[in-house]
Amino acid sequence: MKVKEITLDMAGSMKLIAKRCFPYAMQVIDRFHVQKLATEALQQIRIKHRWEAIEMENELLERSKEKGLKIEIFSNGDTRKQLLARSRYLLYKSKEKWTLGQSHRAEILFYQYPDLEKAYCLSDELRKIYNQNITKSVAMLKLAHWFKNVEESGFKSFTTLKRTITRHYSDILNYFEKRSTNASAESFNAKIKNFRLQLRGVRDKSFFLFRLSKLFA
Description:
There is one protein chain. By secondary structure, this protein is mainly alpha-helical. It has two domains: about 30-170, no CATH class; about 185-215, no CATH class. It is built from eleven helices and two strands; from the N terminus they run E-H-E-H-H-H-H-H-H-H-H-H-H. The protein has helices at about 10-20, 30-65, 80-85, 100-110, 115-130, 135-155, 155-165, 170-175, 175-180, 185-200, 205-215, and strands at about 5-10, 25-30. A two-stranded parallel sheet has the order 1-2.
């Protein structure tokens, strides 16, 4: 009854648990779960282009035996297939955090695939909304503009993301009240998973919890 705020993901079961266990708490959808969906929507477009590039390269290799055709190589040394594969990690970052090599690769990528640049801008725009120290009302206005940009883009994956955000709209906006996240809990969970992997599984749960308390308490 004393808990005033709780951060959680968008799972329906978690929302129900939080409602029953903490009836007076304000529910906050963790920002990283929303941003992760935006990144996955972006990566889906990249993966689609990558499969097309693989198919194109296979056809080119088959025809090259007859006509002596060569695979296209860009100025940074990447083939089209490599360009799309190696661009995976730079799309997770904001432009300010790119290395020189990543900036060059992004320039080539966005020139070849303007739709990827458009999708990256949508993902980056959502990230910047979260990074700004703004009030809930301002965040509501900025999200409305972002929704409009998503509609104009025509990307199916981002339209699905927009519908997901709309369904959890009030809980997502609650983040801008105190900017609370469950990053520390997620980090601890990752440590526990890594520790469990080192043991090749757990048989004695009591001893496992004992070791956890000694190592991480």
